[in-house]
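== Sequence, structure tokens ==
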Amino acid sequence: MREVVVDGGALTREEVVAVARAGVPVRLGDTALDEVAKTRAHVERLAGADTPTYGVSTGFGALATRHIPTDRRAALQRSLIRSHAAGAGDPVEPEVVRALMLLRLRTLATGRTGVRPVTVETLAALLNADVLPVVHEYGSLGCSGDLAPLSAVALALMGEGEVLDHGTLRPAADALRDNGITPLQLAEKEGLALINGTDGMLGMLVLALADLHRLLDLADLTAAMSVEALLGTDRVFADDLQRLRPHPGQAHSAARIAALLDGSAIVASHRGPDCNRVQDAYSLRCAPQVHGAARDTVSYVETVADRELAAAIDNPVVLADGRVESNGNFHGAPIAYPLDFLAIPVADVASMAERRTDRMLDATRSHGLPPFLADDPGVDSGHMIAQYTQAAVVSELKRLAAPASVDSIPSSAMQEDHVSMGWSAARKLRTAIDGLTTVLAVELLTAARALDLRAPLTPAPATARAVAALRERVPGPGTDRHLAPEIHAAEQLIREGNLP
């Protein structure tokens, strides 16, 4: 993807990921600035009217009853941004900042916010220059928009605060000057338009969806490897059995696991009449049902994300006929619920993976593998404590599955008396996705070691490729080694997305 055109229409999830993670540049569409200019004219007309208009000639939130005289309106916009840029905690990831900048730019380009063309152009220039405002972990309640995070962006547009200029922390004023960007002097309505959006939580939702597609594919792979390692059967993944319960995600995962096991000499070795095992444990047999339910959850959440990527979130909005109307579209509930929803299957997929890992390490249930896959059990502990790490992460994932969106803390002197906590839901989902990556990395390491120990029987071609890719970074079975770097190496391999 060479560039992403921002013209006020819907963006795709792929475009958001490309800008956020790959640094793909943006270009304003030919008609976007014309539409922005048209609606800006309506705002300027209202700015000169006697009747007060929220966000144009009044204060904000609980202070909306105060009419602001013309000569104080520039100060009103500056004060709004400075006071609302009140974040705290560690800086959030650059990819999150790029995503929220892109999504705010898209809404501004719809013309429904009433900003000037120069404001849209300056935000696009900041993003393309890779000058990223420092956005802090805490400050958004997921209602009235992601106020503190987006205020950090608006502050940088004014030439204030700190930014990462190509990764280097610098004063915004210096970074803008060196990148040929003129700081903005905000006009009526613009401060509010820059910050009253759900762009941070939406950006994190879109990035999470991209991650989960990769991780659910990986979970199918590690499950298939564990089935082989534990001398499980592939018959339960047959298509005619899956069609009896016609969930699309289940069918997809079952087909993947069956294909990954195709041609496995290990599976073939115990297909005959001498095999006395009637049914595998649930963590093997029911993997398509759990992974598939997670996939169907992702599919539902994608429909929500796609709707939001076509939305124009601001309050008040400038309608095509020139009316400026207050609304509640900034409330984050439509995004917060799906963010919380995704944390549940993340925890459950990880929980099932940990159970498969534990089974491979237990000599009473592993069907011939050495205890903890150790080289010299007793002298060596093998992967014993790697499973402890998995268990610790799974326990944390269960806590992270508790919803943020059922909480609400009233704010702004009770004007904003119900909030979504969607930003918090997004932050904990990102943590959960990192945890699932770690859990699957440990299963990948353990299953690969177990498959090596099944020699001379050979795994399926697909799972063998996964073992070979891991062996380029992590050696095979042997005496105990420092395991933490091996877990990290497996995590990196998973993040690169090059496994079958």
Summary: The chain has 19 helices and nine strands.
